[in-house]
Amino acid sequence: MPARKTKGKTAVDTERKVRAEELAAADGAAAAATIETAAGAADVTRGEDEVAAAAAFSASSDAAARRGARNAAEGAATLSMADQVAASGELAAVLSSDEFRRGMELAGIAGQVQLAAELLGGVGQPTLAAFLGHTSHQLHVLAVAALSRATQGAFVAHGAEHLASELAALGRTEMGEGRDEYATSEALGAASADMAAAAVRSVAAGAAEFAAAKAMGGMSEALASDSAHRAVRARGAGEGRASKPPTRAAAKRAPGNPAKPKM
Asked: What confidence tier does 248 reach under pLDDT thresholds 50, 70, 90?
């Protein structure tokens, strides 16, 4: 009889220990599920932020590419204008040189005609001398006008050369800015691609963590349910043992069944 009681007590203790271990495991799985859920939410949020950053980088890359194209076009147009201005300056320089030669020639002829007029006046040819004097004056006026145009042309040529040089420098600067913008666009495009890849990895990690959290949550529920079922079965077994009818020997010893008197 004492051995049977010890055996029953050991079974009860073992059952309680198993239930305690299952509850502890269920609590651990629930805590792990909470941690995985939080980690999954953080990764998904990070992925959303990375997607937004990738979109921002992509938009910045497109904007930089547009600025690069605009700067390159403006630089090409400015360089073309510089070439045109330089050509105009060269033409003005040529024309100025021609006007200068023509003015000097006219001035020389005017001087020669004036000398002839003075000589004719000295030999008694006043009419011819007057005519030649007037012609010399007209030639002198034409010479002054030609030399004036030559001077203006020289200024124009010099100004055109200076302007062409400044335009060329501006065009080269704009072309350089265009190249820099293109380089910036490529760098931003690469950053956008990297950020998009990081977003995919973050979202995938979040999905895996959510799946792990769901599995751990299911495990926790299963362990808790099994522990509860064990408790119910243990209570049922205890109630069964408590309601078991007494044995014949016990009935004989029970005070409620007095011995039958002998006749």
From this structure: very low
